[in-house]
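Support request, please re-run this one:
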Amino acid sequence: MDDELHERVREVIASVPAGSVATYGDIASVSGAPSPRLVGRILGEDGHDLPWHRILRADGTPAPHLVHEQLERLREEGVLTDGQRVDLRKYRWQRDPGDDGGPDALF
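Re-run finished. Output below.
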């Protein structure tokens, strides 16, 4: 992986606002990363200073080893769960209508 891609993934993760979530796949799509697993690897190795708790698996659940801390941090931001699952239809990061499609939003 090149440094440019690494930084682009970090930039996209950093732009997910409080009260919203994105999936590893969303971040991969916006940043141009070849897979959601690469996003997870970057977060695991170099994500301590990022809002890592806002990034979820495709089904809206947190990583099993982070579930309690991740859900607690999300609740503090107003993201509510149904058990251990976040409703992606309600809380998924959405692009502002006037957005130019840059890395500050998904859709």
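The mean pLDDT is 90. Residues 1-91 form a domain with the Arc Repressor Mutant, subunit A fold (CATH 1.10.10.10).
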